[in-house]
Amino acid sequence: MVQVIWLVAAVFALFSVGYLGYSKYLAQFVELDDSRETPAHKYKDGQEYVPAKKPVLLGHHYSSIAGGAPIVGPITAGVVWGWVPALAWIAIGNPLMGSVHDFVSLSASLRHEGKSIGYIIGEYVGERGKDMLLWFAFITIILVVAVFALVVAIVFDAYPQAATASLIYIGLAVLFGAYLYQLNLPFIPGTVAFVVAMFVGVWVGIQYPLALLPAAEGSSYPAGTIVLFAMEGSWLPAAGSFGTNAAAWIPVILLYGALASALPVWVLLQPRDYLSSFLLYTGVGGALLAVIVGTVGGALGISAITSSQPLVTNLEPYYGFIGRGGLPLFPLLFITIACGTISGFHSLVSSGTTSKQLNKESDARTIGYGGMLGEGLLATVALITVALVSPDVGGGIGLALPTFATGGGILLTSFGIPTSFGGPFMALVLVSFLLTSTDTAVRLGRYMMEEIIGTPESATESFAADRYGNAAVQCLAAYVLIASGSWTTLWALFGGANQLLAALALLTATVWLANWSDAKQLLSTGGPMVVMVTITVLGLLWIALHDNIYAKFLNSQWMASADVVAMLSAAAQIAIAFTLIYLALSLVKMGYENIQKVREQPGSGEFTPGDD
């Protein structure tokens, strides 16, 4: 057993070197300049392009990128392969790959009118390449919405207190948006008042938990739980896999995501993400500080600041290349951890909403590179919680997510906070990440489709580009994927698509830099891109060929028991995997040909730093 403080120390050391050294170099490399007008100011419209204060935008960005993936991924990977490989990939891969990815995606968008990575790649490889990347991103967005909506529902079911607290903080966010943007009242006093009210909401949630349907047989809710409907919900899609209450929450969360994505950013997105950032900083920062306090308290024998259990790893450091459940470490470790190290979804946030709100260019270093390091810290906290509790979850989401809240609650006992408060609070921290990511993803999907269609020329195109119609299409498709009840494959498919999108975002940045100047080195973005293409193509092939074709369609037992929905979902997952591989490899070929051309013909690139 190893004291978990050494896990924290290792991550802090490598992240500090990355931020103080590498990010400073990258900021100079892309020539950030505060005298240059950002898209948020140039195209200010009060709807999408809205300049935001640095802490507000950091709150939005961090809340949007840090969903359930950096929690579920490390927990699952730690249980399957051990905490050492999981920690190594987070601590090394994040500052060298993930943070670089987020920063260059944001920087490239700044220089291209706040447009998405799809638009940017199209500027250099043509309209076909743009549409291919945008379709790839749109498919990935649907997977993101499906996974995050499912995770929120499972957390609401495990911790009904978080459901009540979440409703309260969403209402507070709407009021805070009106306070700031309609009434123009003072920023700091308003922040203090609404943050305090939000933490009061946590207490209210603990006192009055909320569930939609009665607890399943053999389980129970906390005392005082308000159950809205007395009906039996076994008929709901996925109820057999995730429970009736969770299955009832799924369409509610998808509806929320659709409606919230259509609102102007100042109504809900900016104020909610800013307020929730205080939850996130408190949860992640508090858990990391609790490790230090609890360890020191235990060493000095000070009972008042000692955790309720020793802060040491109860998880094996390494279970072998073939981990528990017969899963190979390569390539599955890397697509399982996903967002804790590198995430293509972040490129959509960076180039979709964040670039349209950046007040000045120098803010990109803290928000882009630093925000991703913050997600790495969240992944580290998640790994610590599973190392403390060491559940035999075998990668199952039903136990993986409550583990984060349970382990986090144990950590917070170092401050004298009882687990009856600490557990629900950490559950709310998790949900606050997830809700922001869910409706941000739907909003980004709308941006993708709008860029694909351009000016609508038919009723179908008008519906697809409409903010409500597009959101409905995304959420309906996500619901179909969730309804199969196959979490394991859905998560792996999401991870593979997400990582491959990260590779394409790095390809986009590499092409942009190559067209900017033949003096620009391409190793910082090109190296990680090659690594991610290799890992994720192999991972998606494993999902299609092994997890679906071999384990399902060629398995007579599975075929005999599977229903039509499960078969359709498996077929859709195979089709999605092969479609994503084809789109990705085609784009890599286009990008490579463009880079070859501009490097063989110096000066043929058209980009100048002043373009925006």
UniProtKB/TrEMBL annotation:
Keyword Hydrolase: no
Localization per record: Cell membrane
The protein's name in its UniProt record: Carbon starvation protein A
Domain CstA N-terminal positions: 4-392, 401-537
Transmembrane residue ranges: 71-92, 133-156, 162-180, 187-206, 246-269, 278-305, 325-345, 366-389, 409-436, 476-494, 500-517, 529-545, 565-588
Organism annotation: Halopelagius fulvigenes
InterPro entries to which the protein is assigned, alphabetical: CstA, CstA_N
Highest taxon of source: Archaea
GO cellular component entries: plasma membrane
A Pfam family the protein falls into: CstA
Membrane topology listed for this record: Multi-pass membrane protein
Alphabetically ordered keywords of this record: Cell membrane, Membrane, Transmembrane, Transmembrane helix
